[in-house]
Amino acid sequence: MKTIKFHKTECGVDFLLNVLTEKDIDYADIGTFDTDYFEILFFKEAKGSLILNQQEIELKAGSIIFISPFQKRQWRLDTGNIQVTTLIFQEAFLNDFFADKLFTYRLLYFYQLVHPLEMNINKDELLKYCNLLAEIKMELLNSETDSAHIIRSLLYYLLQTLNRRYANQHGLSLLKSGNNVALLFKNLMEIHIKEKQRIGDYADMLGVSRISLNKAVNAQFNTTASQLLKQRLLFEIQNLLLHSNKTINEIAYELNFSEPNHLMRFFKMQTNQTLTQFINNSPKTSQ
């Protein structure tokens, strides 16, 4: 499976960020692939669908899609009937721009395991966002000494207003500030989920007790640390089942299950489906 890597922009600046249109991206059928950067896509016109992780998303005018690094996807688009503006950036870009190193984990639409990785907006809202992206692109193409400050302010406004809109559309509460333990827990799961599936491991890495970790997670996400960990592990299993050629035995070994039966039992308890049922009911992709 192909991984597309970020290339510094043609704009003559070193920002790990770019704004692209349908003219810059090949949407032809290249099978399943992922990228090493974040993407937010704003569709002015679209016909077709996107298979993203385990979801098939029907695209239309006003669709906004949120994609985190290394999420598996496959386009099924009518390439003659598409207008889209795409913001792409690497996390290092935000870390350089913003003091908050957990900023992406405060945005509800990234690293989302439960709710859709999309939202729909009206024509006027879409135009507002596309105008902001056009301003960012102009600063990239015509960089001046204060361009970084202007891009930072435009980007922060864009990401935060999208976060508020996403929360409202999906009935979510905006994350509380200051609860870094819960966000660090999510960050560590992204890095270590394949080898660490016990709450105690993460509590040790964070230097807190299991009780403190669970309290922080519950306050931030209204769920237990154990349930969040199970959701992330389930997500990893589903991705490997759909987007790799590995056997059940190989997946169980990779994820540190003592034997395949334990993985199958865990999966059935979390989804009320067998592995075979899940695969048969999922959108079909080509590798």
Tag the structure with descriptive keywords.
single chain, 287 residues, alpha+beta, Jelly Rolls, Arc Repressor Mutant, subunit A, three-stranded antiparallel β-sheet, globular
| Helix-strand category | alpha+beta
Shape: globular
User: Based on DSSP secondary structure assignment, what is the total number of beta strands?
Assistant: 10
CATH class of the largest domain: Mainly Beta
Number of domains: 2
CATH architecture of the largest domain: Sandwich
Which strand-content bin applies to the residues? Answer: 15-25%
Helix % is 40-55%
Q: Radius of gyration, Cα only, in angstroms?
A: 20 Å
**CATH H-level superfamily of the largest domain:** Regulatory protein AraC
Terminal CA distance reads: 6 Å
Q: What strand line-up does the widest sheet have? A: 2-9-4-7-10
Number of helices: 11
**Spans of at least 5 consecutive residues with low confidence:** none
CATH topology of the largest domain: Jelly Rolls
Helix-strand topology string: EEEEEEEEEHHEHHHHHHHHH
Topology:
Layout: E1 2-4, E2 17-21, E3 33-35, E4 38-45, E5 48-52, E6 55-59, E7 63-67, E8 73-77, E9 83-89, H1 91-97, H2 103-106, E10 118-120, H3 123-141, H4 147-169, H5 180-192, H6 199-206, H7 210-221, H8 225-243, H9 248-254, H10 260-271, H11 275-281
Parallel strand pairs: 1-3
Antiparallel strand pairs: 2-9, 4-7, 4-9, 5-6, 5-8, 7-10
Helix pairs in contact: 3-4, 5-7, 5-8
Structure description:
The protein is globular, with a radius of gyration of 20 Å. The model has no long low-confidence stretch (mean pLDDT 90). The chain folds into 2 domains: 168 residues, Regulatory protein AraC (Jelly Rolls, Sandwich); 102 residues, Orthogonal Bundle (Arc Repressor Mutant, subunit A). The protein is 46% helix and 17% strand. The longest helix has 23 residues. It has 287 residues and is α+β, with helices and mostly antiparallel strands. The protein contains 11 helices and 10 strands. The strands form 3 sheets. The protein has a 5-stranded antiparallel beta sheet with strand order 2-9-4-7-10. A 3-stranded antiparallel beta sheet has the order 6-5-8, with no helix packed on it. Strands 1-3 form a two-stranded parallel sheet. Helix 3 packs antiparallel against helix 4, helix 5 crosses helix 7 and helix 5 runs parallel beside helix 8.
